[in-house]
Amino acid sequence: KQEVTQIPAALSVPEGENLVLNCSFTDSAIYNLQWFRQDPGKGLTSLLLIQSSQREQTSGRLNASLDKSSGRSTLYIAASQPGDSATYLCAVGGFKTIFGAGTRLFVKA
Amino acid sequence: DAGVIQSPRHEVTEMGQEVTLRCKPISGHNSLFWYRQTMMRGLELLIYFNNNVPIDDSGMPEDRFSAKMPNASFSTLKIQPSEPRDSAVYFCASRFTRLGTEVYNEQFFGPGTRLTVL
Q1: A44 near A97, Cβ under 8 Å?
Q2: pLDDT surpassing 80 at residue B102
Q3: Which pLDDT belongs to residue B80?
Q4: What is the mean pLDDT of residues A53-77?
Q5: Is the CB of residue A10 less than 8 Å from the CB of residue A72?
Q6: How far apart are CA A93 and CA A73, in angstroms?
Q7: Once rounded to an integer, what is the mean pLDDT over residues B92-107?
Q8: Which of A29, B1, B29, B110 is the most exposed place for a label (fewest CB within 10 A)?
Q9: Does residue B105 belong to the interface with chain A, where contact is any CB pair within 8 Å?
């Protein structure tokens, strides 16, 4: 059974800092990995999707990497801003999608 | 594109009542997912459909829960009878799945329905 773990559960950083969020999964037989952002009381917003054949994807200040063999993905956020404060979730799978519990990020102005 | 549309956005009901949640997926998407999110259990997949057909409902907690997708543009999740422990945010999501390949595209989520059962 696939299990997805996100570390740390919560993170507080000063504005401008570069940071890395981690996601690990137990079954490497995945088709893709997707990173989402969720603001309090809101739905999930897709940030990046990495297909299993890819190693990374970039969008603006965000860069996501995928290492299937080790069961890991990282989300790198460059020059963090207070507006980046949210919960970040990773989701692995293909036909079915399994979510991690998320990392709650707070960027201090 | 309007995105995934869910209604109602908030629902407050009393224990024992029937609750129906509605979802309109993004036009052109052929896969639809229902999730439930709580503080204790996080985001859980309840059921998903492909081309209007339920593929996996193993996440549906009990027989009190049922879901239908009568056509490509509409799905419902029904709880009958509702119980206080059903209180949660219910999300609907959709994506395009190219069957016969191993390429699965991005999922897009609706804003959710916050259900409170008193």
Answers
A1: no
A2: no
A3: 96
A4: 95
A5: no
A6: 13
A7: 83
A8: B1
A9: yes
Q: How far apart are CA A21 and CA A5, in angstroms?
A: 11
How confident is the model over B43-57, as pLDDT tens digits? 999 999 999 999 999
What Cα–Cα distance (Å) separates residue A71 from each residue in A3, A26, A90, B7?
10, 6, 12, 37
* Cβ–Cβ below 8 Å for A32 and B104: yes
State residue B105's pLDDT score: 82
Looking at chain B, how many residues does it have? 118
Burial label for A93, CB within 10 Å (0-12, 13-18, 19+), is buried
Distance from CA of B2 to the nearest CA of A (A): 14
User: What's the average model confidence in pLDDT over B24-49?
Assistant: 94
Q: How far apart are CA A20 and CA A40, in angstroms?
A: 21
* A104 alpha-carbon distance from chain centroid: 11
pLDDT, average across residues B71-83: 96
- Cα(A67)–Cα(A8) distance, rounded to whole angstroms? 19
Q: Which residues of A touch B97 (CB under 8 A)?
A: 95
CB neighbourhood size of A24 (10 A): 18
Min Cα separation A14/chain B (Å): 26
